[in-house]
Amino acid sequence: MHDPPRRPWTEPGRDPELALAAQNGDLGALFTLLRKHRRELWRMCFALTLDRARAERLFHDTLLRAAKNLRSLPAGAALLPWLARLAAHLAATSSRQDATGRAAGPATPALDPVVAGTPLGDAERSILQAFSRLSETDRLLLALASIERLTYPELAAVARRDVPAVMQQLAVLRTRLAGEEAA
Amino acid sequence: MKHLTSRKLCEFLDDALEGVPDEEAALHLRSCPMCRARYEAWTSGDEAMREMLSQPPEEDVLEQWSSWVELAVTAERKGLPVPEFAELRLPLPPSLLPPAPEVPRVGVPPRPQGPVRFATLEEPRRGAPASYVGQAPAAPAPNTTGGIYEIAPYAASRRAPTELPRPVTVRGYARLPDSSSGWLDRLAQGLGPTSVWAPIAILFGVLVTAPIVPVIIHLTQGARPAVHDDVSSSAGAGTTERSAATSASEPSVASGRVAPAVPAQPSPPPAAEARARAASDAVQGESAAAALPQGTWPLLCGEVLDTHRAAIEGARITLAGVVVARTDRRGRFSLACPPGKRVLRVEAPGHAPATRVIVLGSKTLETRFLLESAK
């Protein structure tokens, strides 16, 4: 029995072993692998969509895409960063499609007025509106820093960027989030 | 005074999260209201985001989502149609879900008005007409007469032929059609038990009315409805085994032969009783489904495995409290069910039961249960 990794975003744990078995057709290993990180993936999906229904769909789409393309997971790597990047990519694609659809049809509903079961106050709504204006990649980075509390090296590894670039980007994003840019 | 840059402030914020704040930046924040205000705004923004976005759904909801993914992946790899995501969406945890709709016990229709009797009927074979006519009262009732009993229709054609249990016993309240209440039946009802009057009638017939027997027979046949000789009807649970042996090889029929009422139901042999019970269980749910439009019924397929991925044979599949199927040697089951939200429960000896809420749409749905060993 293996203990779960202390830092699931960067420590692979049993991921490579399960991924290898899944790549060889072991559905049980695949399902174990996908179930292992579902909570973290859900948080990322919700941060990327800010809407529970869309987050659900993104969650499912990400896992289905992951099951199909598991062979592209780098050998020995942790699954979670790969899943998060996949989710961000799918969310960006979906947003582009939504934007295309909006040109001909009605606008998609605004920000979910109830997040995590609690009606939003003005301050929270302002923060979420600023957050919703960020790109999917930026949302992922900010969520990883603020919600998952990853360190800069971990953020750099997940985002596949160097540490100074991550630090600079985070500063810019927090400035936008606080509304300082508009001011 | 030189203010902290955004990057320095960001770094300080993240270092503070890690518990190793920069002392120089901390000193500046104490003395600079503007930077302190920025810092507090950023901190509250981070906290608000954590508060709003980090709460995962309930564990059982996550479990449902994972199950759907597994179902979709399994179906895709088997070349089966992948069910629509919307069909299985469960936005609420079970504690907040409305109670599952009560599935009526199909095959046990509402008790009709007039003379009725709880009857059983052997289903001759798969593909029989939806409307069955038979007899064989299982228990006498004071206001009933012998005759042909019409059993409420139920669907038997949605199952795969290999998975249809046979023989199938249908239980239901039987309505006595007008055409079946012949004068001989009414006469038998009025005279009492067959053991009393039958010898007298036979003696009378032989000694006194022998010349007119052909006329009586002719009249009797003319008063009864048309029947087929290839019917395998049972006179109660005690004859289930016999009827089972004959019904498998007999063609489908739609009517049954009239038989006298059975005053007391004999005890069936254990094997026959178990077999009849299992068959009855299997059909009761299915006939309950018949209460809804058949055209909209999706197939619910699935498999029941243990934690070592070995098939569990004979697991009981319960829908809304009614046992509707048992798994075969491969641990597979398949049943037709009206669309809607259903509580599916799987029980197998030596294993912990599992319950799952599913939403059936119009398409075939495949699911899988992994049962853990009972502790």
Give me a quick take on this structure.
With 183 residues, chain A is mainly alpha-helical. Chain A is built from nine helices and two strands.
What do these coordinates show?
The complex is a heterodimer of chains A (183) and B (375). Chain A contains nine helices and two strands, in the order αααααββαααα. Chain A has 183 residues and is mainly α. In chain A, a hairpin with a 2-residue loop joins strand 1 and strand 2 (118-119). In chain A, helix 1 packs antiparallel against helix 2 (27-36) and helix 8 (152-159) crosses helix 9 (163-177). By secondary structure, chain B is of the alpha+beta class. Chain B folds into three domains: 9-53; 59-97 and 292-371, Sandwich (Immunoglobulin-like), CATH 2.60.40.10; 116-182 and 224-283, no CATH class. Chain B has helices at 6-18, 23-31, 33-53, 59-77, 183-191, 194-207, 213-223, 240-247, 270-289; strands spanning 116-123, 132-134, 149-151, 168-175, 299-306, 316-319, 322-326, 332-336, 340-347, 354-360, 365-371. A four-stranded antiparallel β-sheet of chain B has the order 7-6-9-10. In chain B, a hairpin with a 2-residue loop joins strand 6 and strand 7. The longest helix of chain B has 21 residues, at 33-53. Chain B is rod-shaped. The termini of chain B are far apart. The chains are: A mainly alpha (183), B alpha+beta (375). The A-B interface holds A 27-28, 30-31, 34-35, 38-39, 42-43, 46-47, 50, 52-53, 56-57, 59-60, 63-64, 67, 115-118, 120, 123-124, 127-128, 131, 142-143, 145-147, 149, 151-152, 167-168, 170-172, 174-175, 177-178, 180 and B 5-7, 9-11, 13-14, 17-18, 38, 41-42, 44-46, 48-57, 62, 65-66, 68-70, 72-74, 77, 85, 89, 91, 309.
Mean pLDDT over the residues of chain B: 56
Query: N-to-C SSE series of chain A?
Result: HHHHHEEHHHH
- At the fourth level of CATH, the homologous superfamily of chain A is PhyR, sigma-like (SL) domain
Lateral arrangement of strands in the main beta sheet of chain B = 7-6-9-10
Give the domain tally of chain B: 3
- Radius of gyration of chain B, in Å, reads 33 Å
Task: Tell me the major beta sheet of chain A.
Answer: 2 strands, antiparallel
Q: Distance between termini of chain B?
A: 69 Å
Give the overall form of chain A.
globular
In this structure, how is the largest beta sheet of chain B organized? 4 strands, antiparallel
> Tally of extended strands of chain A?
2
Largest interface: A-B, 50 and 40 residues
Oligomeric grouping of the chains: heterodimer
Estimated helix fraction of chain A: 55-70%
Uncertain spans of chain A, ≥5 residues at pLDDT below 50? 105-110
Q: Give, in order, the helices and strands of chain B.
A: HHHHEEEEHHHHHEEEEEEE
> Might you state the CATH topology name of chain A?
Butyryl-CoA Dehydrogenase, subunit A, domain 3
User: How many H/I helices of chain A?
Assistant: 9
Say how many strands of chain B there are: 11
Q: How is the largest sheet of chain A built, in terms of strand order?
A: 1-2
Share of residues in strands of chain B: 15-25%
